[in-house]
């Protein structure tokens, strides 16, 4: 009987260790999510700065060319023509980054769902373990009471045998 209780305790300890591992994995996933969010924030800031810088640079170039002379219109057109393909390339690069950020956001969302699911399972396991532990403690107390009663009956029986 003691062996069964020992096995039950070992099983509960094993389940408790599993639950702790799940909690650790949840913490690691949460840390990873925070890193991804920081990376995404940095990417957004960097994209905004690059875009603003390129726009300012383009406007400064245009203004300086216009200020120099109205007669340089043909030259200005020659300068603008190569800028348009670069601008389109830049726009396509921005779209690619937006898509990448969107994908990372979706991945982050999926990981958050996974963490929530794992946490819920961990809570359920914890409740189940507590209930099983309570049942096993009650059974152990009952077994000890029965053993005590048995010992009393046995000593009474021995005492009566000696009298007879």
TrEMBL record:
GO terms for biological process: centriole replication; de novo centriole assembly involved in multi-ciliated epithelial cell differentiation. It is found in: Cytoplasm. Keywords: Coiled coil, Cytoplasm. One of its GO terms (cellular component) is deuterosome. Residues 94-121 form a coiled coil. PANTHER family: DEUTEROSOME ASSEMBLY PROTEIN 1, SARCOMA ANTIGEN NY-SAR-24/CYTOSKELETAL PROTEIN SOJO. This is DEUP1 protein. The gene is Deup1.
């Amino acid at each position: 009987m003691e062996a069964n209780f020992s096995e039950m305790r070992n099983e509960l300890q094993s389940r408790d260790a599993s639950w702790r591992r799940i909690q650790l994995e949840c913490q690691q996933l949460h840390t990873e999510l925070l890193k991804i969010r920081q990376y995404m924030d940095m990417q957004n800031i960097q994209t905004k700065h690059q875009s603003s810088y390129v726009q300012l640079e383009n406007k400064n170039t245009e203004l300086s060319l216009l200020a120099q002379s109205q007669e340089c219109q043909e030259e200005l057109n020659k300068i603008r023509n190569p800028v348009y393909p670069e601008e389109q390339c830049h726009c396509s690069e921005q779209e690619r980054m937006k898509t990448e950020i969107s994908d990372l956001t979706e991945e982050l969302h999926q990981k958050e769902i996974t963490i929530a699911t794992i946490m819920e399972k961990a809570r359920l396991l914890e409740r189940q373990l507590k209930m099983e532990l309570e049942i096993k403690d009650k059974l152990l107390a009952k077994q000890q009471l029965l053993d005590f009663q048995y010992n009393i009956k046995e000593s009474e029986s021995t005492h009566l045998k000696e009298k007879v």
